Amino acid sequence: MRKSILILALCLAASVQAQKFAGLAPTPPMGWNSWNKFGCDVDEALIRATADAMAASGMKAAGYQYVVIDDCWHGQRDSLGFIHPDPQRFPSGMKALADYIHSKGLKFGIYSDAGWKTCAGRPGSRGREFQDAQTYAAWGIDYLKYDWCHSDDLAAKGAYKTMSEAIHHAGRPIVFSLCEWGSNKPWEWAREVGHLWRTTGDIAVVFDGIVDHGTWKSWGVMQILDMQEGLRVYAGPDHWNDPDMMEVGNGMTVSEDRAHFSMWCMLAAPLMAGNDLRTMNAETRAILTNAQAIAINQDPLGIQGLKYFAQDSLEIWFKPLQQEEWAACFLNRSRLSKPVTFNWDEHHIVDEFSKREIDFTRASWKLFDVWANREMGTTKKPLGVQIPSHDVLLLRLTALKK
Ligand code: GLA
Predict the structure, then answer these.
(1) Which of these is catalytic: 113, 142, 147, 391?
(2) What is the pLDDT, as a whole number, of residue 11?
């Protein structure tokens, strides 16, 4: 009897060990990932130049820190099974690249896959999880995105737990980013396993629409936004819903980029830029580095925003912030510019999840227009604005002293 209790206790202790490195992502991670813009065309010159640009462009100062190489950095495994980078594309090796990125005060992320192969057919980590995690730790990796292609008969929870344990065992704190596209509802089980999990398939450079690739589809910004329905209760500090890396600067209009970025801020989404930082124009940079918008995203409470109203292509979102402040976002999804009136006094917003409420008949709030960067009156008067097509009005609300 006693012996079986002891065995049970040991088993429990072993299973508890399977925990992520806690506390690495108290607010949504911010950085850059190579995939959306560069696909498989990655090499060390691009990554170094991106780190340079991140430091020089104001991105680093705005809070971006992870430089993540997505798929296709891989070369072969050696006779002992150790993975090596592609020797043509990364001749100096990953340790040297990590040192360079760290010397800029930034952090280094990499990509692998739970299956036999990555989505682009490079070696996956299946059966090599502990060995790969040790290699990444030795290279100085700080962030691992872990994909789900070629996963055949694997059970997602077990597969991601194995890599989480492997990282823990390797001993270097690494942010663990699950990328299984929401197929196995990671929001229900990944809180102890990783720091963020993709909730959807891949994003496309489309504001509203679906791109059909034959065997799979990628999704417009609005489609991805709609797929976040019901998920906000699963997110919070150190465990984030990830609606995918951003397409800001990759070809949508400035309005669309602004709306995309604003909604990612309202969602408390990880802010992973997906554009070419070396050549981005001033408009793109201004969107990605807007301090007020980022402050909404990075609010320490980490409460994902809620959709309060949706009608005739207009959505109104609210996000509780620290110190009794709120963010509000009016999103015009239509193809036409839209006049919007909003009589604050008719609204009483109650958020059951965060236990926060805002009753505009009982108190008044100062409005700050984030994109215009100026005060915009108070909630004592009804709002009356024109919102261009595929654009937003993003506000920060601060209680007026009585
Ligand atoms: C999947 C992921 C993408 C990207 C590619 C790389 O599609 O969802 O984000 O990592 O694989 O091949």
Answers:
(1) 147
(2) 46
